[in-house]
Amino acid sequence: MSTGTERNRTDTEAPVTGTGLEVPAVTPTVLHRQASLPSWAPWGVLVAAVAVGAGLTALAGGFSVGLWVFLSVVLYAVVTYAASRVVEGRRRATDRLVTVLVTSAFLVAMLPLLSVLYTVVSQGWARLDATFFTNSMRGVVGVGGGALHAIQGTLVITALAAVMSIPIGLLTAIYLVEYANNSRLARAITFFVDVMTGIPSIVAGLFAYALFALLLGPGVRFGFVGAVALMVLMVPIVVRSTEEMLKIVPNELREASYALGVPKWRTILKIVIPTTAGGIATGITLAIARVIGETAPLLITTGYALGVNLNPFSGPMTTLPVFSYYSYAVPGIPREAFIDRAWTAALMLMVIVMVLNVVARLISRIFAPKTR
């Protein structure tokens, strides 16, 4: 009689016979676990690379933050790759190296953004008071005053530009997707939209100024001219974003509507547009955020006013970008008061753009097609 161990070994190693099928013997294999670096190794290497990079930067003759960061990243990447190559093999070492390079590129891209954000917030916080939002610069020579007229001018001009550009952009995109059928006119429109997307903003300002100078004479500067300049910049963005949203609507939805006898215009109005309402609204909001910070076209078209002017068809109007530019470029006495107002205006502009981006995300989430 054989023991249990021998019986198990015999059952495992012997082939199965007598059934007409020959089953090969199963040879047990041993799985070897691949060696890997300890979890603390990347952090230890990073600390060592930072310390060594700081020492090398100091020895180079004067400490430089940029050189310190560069040397630390290079040392960290080289040491990590070498250690991983010895312990884990070539594939894991290459993976770690690429991870280090991608993470470093992300951090390098974030540094300017964080620097700008910190600078604007720290410099603009000083004048973020009630006076800044309730007073204009009429009658103010030095300290005091606010940007009420600039905030109102920004809202009025941007609203006019949105009212003019959104219908034009939506209807153009609907024509290109639903009616054009890749015609010659559609290709021409697409070409000019692409060209308009890349034109400098100063060109839009010059176009609007030249147009109204021909109609009303030279020297025209009022809010509506600036709104036309911003409209030229907004239209291609609205067209492109709406066109891409309409293209992702499945044709099956349109065909089902046509099969029920619904006319094309009603299908577009009741089926196509509601399906992509979130994406269209997001594109429109981002287009507004894109043009609300424009300075160059408004310097030419709207002029500069010290007081409140809510009539876009008469007299100069001031926007936050123009107010910030003049406060910084042509300061009065004392200079510090004008510089503080410039930074606070820039901070307010960043806040408005951030709010618009948040609104765009909320609209996209609210109007997104429900999957359940």
From TrEMBL:
Location (main, coarse): membrane
Domain ABC transmembrane type-1: 151-360
Keyword hit for Phosphoprotein: no
Highest taxon above the source species: Bacteria
Gene3D superfamilies referenced in this protein's UniProt entry, alphabetically: MetI-like
Comp. bias intervals (Basic and acidic residues): 1-12
Transmembrane feature ranges: 40-59, 65-84, 96-121, 155-177, 189-216, 222-239, 271-292, 342-363
Localization per record: Cell membrane
UniProtKB keywords: Cell membrane, Membrane, Phosphate transport, Transmembrane, Transmembrane helix, Transport
Disordered: annotated segments: 1-20
Listed InterPro entries: MetI-like (IPR000515), MetI-like_sf (IPR035906), Phosphate_PstA (IPR005672), Phosphate_transprt_permease (IPR051408)
Pfam family, one: BPD_transp_1
Membrane disposition: Multi-pass membrane protein
Function statement: Part of the binding-protein-dependent transport system for phosphate; probably responsible for the translocation of the substrate across the membrane.
Family: Belongs to the binding-protein-dependent transport system permease family. CysTW subfamily.
Descriptive protein name: Phosphate transport system permease protein PstA
Gene designation: pstA
